[in-house]
Amino acid sequence: NDTIVGDTDSAPVNVIADLSFDGNLNDATGNGNNGILRGGASLTATGSDGASNSAVALDGVNSFVEIAPDSAFALSEGTISLSVNVDSLVNDQSLFSRDSTDFDGGGHIDARILSDGSIFVRLQSDSDSPANFTTAPNTINAGEWNDIAVTFGPGGVNIYVNGALEASDPY
To answer: CA–CA separation, 158 vs 135, rounded Å?
Structure first.
């Protein structure tokens, strides 16, 4: 998905990966950060645009899309955006994760949808204690497409859903 927040009259700056799932898992930026289906994930679902094979079907247990590690993902600021449609909110569901070994550079960021429909984001820089951020319950509803964007950097963390700011923290 393309960026859903910010100035829509200009292209996003320094896009590292863009997996649009247009029938494949190729990175549209040309950076070679293609996706790999793992754990039974399949590119067979109907996307938010109604097109077949334009979304990844995940089993909610151990399937995911992997992008190989790359030093370009060691970010101190940026935006991660995606569209999701969950079948149910019975269990917590991971949206994305960029983890690192100990504090070897690049820090950690992960986001998930919790069983109450809130979005949880965890950030940790190279040396800081983790900072956790959560939206209000029922931010996400099962069975509906939601555009989610998480921005992070010196100005803090912002979590957007369908273009609306749902949580903000200057941390």
So the answer is: 10
